[in-house]
Amino acid sequence: MNPRVMQIALVGAGMFGADVHLRTYADLERCGIAPYLGRIGMDDLAREFSDVRWELVAVATRSPDSASRAAQTYAAWTGKTPRAYYGDAPWEDVLSDFSDLRVLSVATPDDLHAAPVLAALRRGVHAVVEKPMTLTLAEADAILEAERQSGCLVGLDMHKRYDPDHLHIFTELLPRLGAPLYGRAVLEEPLEVSTSTFKWATRSDPFSYVGVHWTDLFIHYLKTKPASLHAIGQKRRLADDFGIDAYDAVQVSVVFDNGLHVQFNNHWINPSDFEGPVNQECEIVAARGKIESDSQYRGLRYTIAGGGSRTTNTHFTRLVSRPDGSKSMVGYGKDSLVACLLAMLRRDAGSERIETLRGTYPNAHEGRLSVAIIEAAKRVRDMNAHYLTDGRGTPVTATFGKHGVEVGDPIGANHVIYSRPV
User: Fold this and answer.
1) Which of 282, 311, 340 is a domain's end point?
2) Cβ 256 vs Cβ 222: under 8 Å
3) What gap in Å lies between CA 178 and CA 166, rounded to an integer?
4) How far is residue 198's CA from residue 379's CA, in Å, rounded to a whole number?
5) 56 plus 90 within the same structural domain
6) Residues 125 and 219 in one domain
7) What pTM, to 2 d.p., does this model score?
8) Can you tell me the distance from the alpha carbon of 401 to that of 412, in angstroms, rounded to the nearest whole number?
9) Cβ contacts of 389 within 8 Å, gap of 6 or more
10) Measured between alpha carbons, how far is 59 from 69 in angstroms, rounded to an integer?
11) For the segment 122-150, what is each residue's pLDDT rounded down to a tens digit?
12) Helices 90-97, 114-122: crossing angle, 10 deg rounding
C-alpha cells in the first residue's frame, strides 16, 4: 500500500453525496489537498502533503441508475470514471474489490450510517460519515469500539463548525462575553426535503437531521456535555397533506453541564416560495452581552421577475471558474470533509497518534454526545406527544450523567434508556 495514494469510495449519492462529497473528491483528485488547507488553518502542512494523490475509485448506491449517474458526473468533472456499485449493502463489494482503499465516505440516509462504517473499520479503512453519526448510542458505541480496535479514524461532516460566522462567534466573541447563559438555535428545511428529496422522513426527524449541527457547535467549542433535556414535536402538514407519518417540527430544550440552556428549533416544511434554501439563525445571551446571527440572510438578496425575492448563502459552497472552464468548489460545506481527510492522511502517511489528531477534525467521540441528545429527544418527544393527546401535558424529561441516560416520567415510571456514561 502506497501511503502517498489515498483511495476513496463513496457510499450514497443523494442530495449531499452527489453534490458536496462528489465535488470535494473531484477537486482533490485534480489538485490534491494542499490548495484547501488554508481554509481550515492547516496551511503549514500544505508542502508536506502536496504530492499525495487522491482517487475516487468507486461510487455505491442502492439503485443502478443513481450509481451510474454519479460515476458519469464524476467522469465529466475529472476525466476519470469510478466503478459503480449498487444494492442493499454495496459497500461490502467495494471493500472486497479494493484492497488498498483508505477511506469509505458514507452519505446514506440517517438510519443507515452504522453498517458501512463498521464494515470499513473491520477492514482497516477510515470512514467519513454524514451527520448525525448514528441515531442510537448503541450504534455510536459500537463504532467507537471498532475505531479503537482498528486504529483507524471516523470523521463526521459537521460543516457548521467551519462557517466563518460561527468560527468568529465561538472563538472570538463568546470568550469576551463571559459565561454563556441561554441560547436559541434554528434550522428549518424546505418541504421538498421531507416529501420528495428524502424517501426516509419517517425513519428520522428534522432535529436528528439538522439540529445535530447546532448541538455539535456548542459541544465542540464550549467543551460541554448535555445534563438534561425536554422535547416536543408536532405532526400536521406531512401527515394531513402527504400521508407521511413523520414529525413536521421538533423543539428540543437542552441544559448543558456548564449551565447553558439552549432551545433547538427545527422543521422541514418550509414552503417552496420561501426566499432562502433554508432558514437558520441563532442567539446566544451571555453574562456580559449577547450575539445574534442570521445564517439564512447573509446580505445578498435579489429579485427576478416571476421568481420573487431570494437570498443566497455563498459561504456554504460556491463554484469558482478555472481558466480551462471547469469549476472548483469552495466553502465551509467542503471544509469539514477536508479536515477529516487530512487527519486520515496524517494517520497513514505520517503515522501520527489518534489522540494527537482528535482535536483537528470533527470526531466520533464528540459526535457521540450529539447522538445521546438525539436518542433521548426522540424518546422524550414521543412520550410527551402521547401524554399531550391524553390531556396530561408534556411532563417527560431526560437526564445525562455517569450512569447513562435516564427518562424522567412523573406519570408512569422513570427508566434508563442507556446505561453507559455520557
Assistant:
1) 311
2) yes
3) 17
4) 23
5) yes
6) no
7) 0.96
8) 22
9) none
10) 10
11) 999 999 999 999 999 999 999 999 999 99
12) 20
